[in-house]
Each structure stands twice: as C-alpha cells, then as structure tokens.
From TrEMBL:
Catalytic activity annotation: 1-(5-phospho-beta-D-ribosyl)-ATP + H2O = 1-(5-phospho-beta-D-ribosyl)-5'-AMP + diphosphate + H(+)
EC number: 3.6.1.31
Superkingdom, natural source: Archaea
NCBIfam families (alphabetical): histidine_hisI
UniProt protein name: Phosphoribosyl-ATP pyrophosphatase
Gene that encodes it: hisE
Keyword Transport among record annotations: no
Location of the protein in the cell: Cytoplasm
Listed InterPro entries: HisE (IPR008179), PRib-ATP_PPHydrolase-like (IPR021130)
Organism whose genome encodes this protein: Metallosphaera yellowstonensis MK1
Length: 93
C-alpha cells in the first residue's frame, strides 16, 4: 500500500511542478487548494455512501478516489507520505 502511495505521490508532485496539458492533477491545482479540500470531503462522503448502500467493489473504487485526492491535497500542503507514516508509527501500540 505505502509503495503504491509513494509512487502516486511522486507522480502527483511532478504534475504540480510541471503542470502539463491534459493532467487532471494540474486542473485540480488550477482551481486552488480550497477546491481540492472540498473534493476530499466529497470523496469521503462517497466512500461512506458506497459502504452503506453499494457494496465492496464501489467501496474499493471510491477509496481509491479518496486516496488520490488526499495525496493531491497533501502535496499542495507540502506534507510528504513519510511524515504521515511517521505519525502513524508514533501512535502504534
Ligand atoms: N489515481 C488517479 C485518480 N483517481 C481518480 N482520479 C480522477 O478523479 C476524478 C474523480 O471523479 P469525480 O466525478 O469526483 O470528478 P470529475 O467530475 O471528473 O471532476 P471535477 O470537475 O468534479 O473535479 C476523475 O476524473 C478521475 O479520473 C484520478 N486522476 C488521476 N490519477 C492518477 O494520478 C496521476 C496523475 O494523473 P494526471 O494528473 O491526470 O496526469 C496518474 O498516475 C493517474 O493515474
């Protein structure tokens, strides 16, 4: 899981630096951090709805959307996945 997230984060980070045509990440960044933050909220609600009414396949798909948007928000905030892993390790009992 962390390997895939690290790889996706690196791709996202490079899209934010290069802002290439046709990149969904670049189009999100152009709309601003507030827009990305709202997308994270929307995607989280979609995970909840999928879990309550739509079944496992939809939960997987919506969770992937949520993680992607969360990684974009983290990159815009300058938060690296390793810093979150470190916090999780610190809490681990
Ligand atoms: N993992 C993802 C990923 N997950 C979800 N999404 C996009 O997130 C959007 C979620 O759908 P929504 O209906 O909520 O949003 P929408 O209506 O399409 O768009 P909005 O106008 O609401 O923002 C879809 O357009 C998906 O394509 C992703 N877009 C890109 N990636 C990966 O991110 C990397 C960079 O992608 P680009 O920036 O497109 O080059 C690549 O490795 C991609 O595979």
């Amino acid at each position: 899981m962390s390997e895939v997230m690290d790889q996706l984060y690196r791709i996202i980070d490079s899209r934010l630096k290069e802002m290439p045509e046709g990149s969904y990440t670049a189009s999100l960044a152009k709309r601003g951090k507030g827009y990305v933050a709202r997308k994270v909220g929307e995607e989280a609600v979609e995970v909840v709805v999928a879990s309550l009414t739509e079944g496992k396949e939809r939960v997987i798909s919506e969770t992937a959307d949520l993680i992607y948007h969360l990684l974009v928000l983290m990159a815009l905030e300058g938060v690296k996945p390793e810093e979150v892993y470190e916090e999780l390790r610190r809490r681990m009992k």
